[in-house]
Specification:
Length: 189
């Protein structure tokens, strides 16, 4: 039996592959990064630190809101979704600029250690600033990038809040997404 070639397939099968292939290609292009030097430049490094700081402070807020969700306050879901999307905007841009895996984890851990020593007023201001910056990042992104952020954030929020329902109210909430795993999910991994 001769191997099947794409032009031998009935039309009903070939038109179904078109949109999926187009979406896969568009996603690859959206996250493509031109080949640069092995080391990020100073601007990239500064952005990575800022992105980690913003992801860390918004993660704290998401964890706090998940605790309220666990306690029965269902009205917080929209805020959890919004904060997760803004955090994922930083993650996506950092990914596009070359931040990956262990480096992302290390930066987030450093940001969280720094934030643990900061007062509530400083963290509130940092969060407000980061939310405004995250909104700007989303506004500058293309429609495919916004769709990816929204969909991945929605999935993360669903998992986080479903987990929160199965965790006793007096237990520590599971942490929200960290940049490295979120980057992998946003990139389709």
């Amino acid at each position: 039996m001769a191997p099947t070639r794409s032009h031998d397939l009935p039309a009903r099968h070939t038109h179904q592959a078109g949109p999926a292939l187009a979406l896969a290609l568009a996603m690859a292009l959206a996250f493509a990064r031109p080949a640069l030097a092995a080391e990020p430049d100073a601007a990239d490094q500064a952005f990575y630190r800022r992105a980690a700081s913003c992801a860390g402070v918004m993660k704290q807020e998401v964890v706090r809101l998940a605790g309220r969700w666990r306690a029965g306050e269902r009205g917080v879901r929209g805020e959890v979704q919004r904060l997760t999307e803004l955090s994922f905007a930083f993650v996506g841009v950092a990914y596009k600029r070359g931040l990956r895996g262990e480096a992302a984890d290390r930066l987030l851990a450093e940001a969280e250690r720094t934030q643990a020593a900061q007062g509530a007023a400083v963290l509130r201001q940092l969060s407000a600033d980061c939310q405004a910056e995250g909104r700007q990042l989303l506004d500058k992104s293309n429609s495919l990038e916004r769709m990816l952020v929204r969909n991945r954030a929605k999935a993360r929020v669903g998992h986080l809040l479903d987990d929160a329902l199965s965790t006793p109210a007096n237990a520590t909430a599971a942490p929200a997404a960290t940049p490295a795993p979120a980057v992998q999910r946003a990139a389709g991994g």
